[in-house]
Amino acid sequence: IGAGTMGGGISMNFLNRGIPVTLIETTQEALDRGIGTIEKNYVRSAKRGRITADDVEMRMSLLTPSLDDEVLSDVDLVIEAVFEDMDLKKSVFKRIDGICKPSCIMASNTSYLDINEIADVTSRPEDVIGLHFFSPANIMRLLEVVRGDKTSNEVLATCMRMGTGLGKVAVVVGVCRGFVGNRILSARMRQSDDLLRKNAMPKEIDRVVFDFGFPMGPFAMRDLAGLDIGWLGDETPDKETDIRHQLCALGRLGQKTGGGFYDYEEGSRTPLPNAEVEQIIRDAADYAGVMREGISSEDMLKRMIYAMVNEAAKILDEGIALNAAAIDVIWVYGYGWPTYRGGLTYYADQVGLQNIVDDLDRFSKEYDPELEPAPLLRRLAEEGKSFGEFMQPG
User: What integer pLDDT is reported at residue 354 of this predicted model?
Assistant: First the structure.
């Protein structure tokens, strides 16, 4: 349900495996656009020799476009991929609950929202699950399978088996805002934003992350995704100090408009620093009464990476991830963690958890109280244990 970027990409996963897909939209225009994008992707792959013209024809023949929800009455699995808005998703699930057959699995592709809240609007929460595909969904291998409080064992097992059958790396996660991957990403974003306000320019922050081994830094990544994702427009609070708001208000929405935190020459994805953007950053700090100070590259990197480690410890303590390895797999396959560093928690174990706790204690006093070491992280350090040794109770 939903023929946008995610809906189209998710559909391609099934079509590629010879599984029929019905793609549903609310308007013919949106439906035609979604079908057209899928076909263009396949034609492009055929021109590059990755698939044949017969493959394109066969896969497109398995795709049925529709404007009528009633066609869902006999399907085995529904994946909702509409806009990331809780009220909208609830309305979709209320509607399909009355249409789908009793054995149908009802899944949401939400990347942040509460699966339990979505499930509770249905008469069968045991059949509701989260299937968080990563964009572009037809390419990215990671699939977070989000188990709700009432999701049945059969539904969970079926979705895990389906995920691996699609060629995905499927990882079970629990319910919290952002699940595992995006929750840890949010912790890094908080630090990169704080560094931007108080200490450094985008190119400096991105450089230390890139040099660590990521394919791109946090601000180049935002430009790629689009700065207008989640932007509140005129409803944005603290407009004078919100740097992203000011960029969006200027029409600098990222790569798609030729400029965001960086400039981009036509046909190029290479980020180029922009003097006007850097002045906006300084002015926002002045308006907020922030005295910008220098910071070492080492501390910049540690603040971002150790914030991720700290969030990982909280996730483990809450039982959102089954073990540390699950977190590492998610960050390697979904977020570009440099594989030669062995995964987020593995890297933390190599650095030494006590060393990380010591730095976080310092950072929480100097920069951000949110960097106070998580109880589990501090406990493991005090006991001389590693993330790899941690096991969930029971």
Answer: 98
Cα Rg of the chain, angstroms = 22
**For residues 209 and 196, what is the distance between their CA atoms, to the nearest angstrom?**
14
Instruction: Write down the residue that tokens 């244990």 correspond to.
Output: 385
- DSSP SS3 for 94: helix
Residues 7, 97, 128, 132: which is the catalytic one?
Answer: 132
The confidence score (pLDDT) of residue 394 equals 60
Do residues 72 and 100 make contact, with C-beta atoms less than 8 angstroms apart? yes
Q: Is residue 132 annotated as part of the catalytic site, yes or no? A: yes
Question: Which residues make Cβ contacts (< 8 Å) with residue 214, sequence separation at least 6?
Answer: 336, 337, 338
Structure tokens at 189: 């974003």
Reported as a single tens digit per residue, the pLDDT across 41-61 is 999 999 999 999 999 999 999
Low-confidence ranges of the chain (pLDDT < 50): none
CB 200 within 8 A of CB 295: yes
User: In the 8-state DSSP scheme, what is residue 160?
Assistant: H
Helix axes 218-225, 181-198, angle to 10 degrees: 110
Q: Tokens for 345?
A: 């928690």
Beta bridge partners of 321: 173
**Amino acid residing at 165:** G
Q: Residue written as tokens 């492009």?
A: 44
Secondary-structure percent of the chain, ordered helix, strand, coil, rounded to 5: 55, 10, 35
Q: Which secondary structure element, helix H or strand E, spans residue 48, and what is its range?
A: none
Helices (H), strands (E): how many in the chain?
A: 16, 7
pLDDT in tens, 297-330: 999 999 999 999 999 999 999 999 999 999 999 9
pLDDT of residue 34: 96
Position 142: which residue type? L
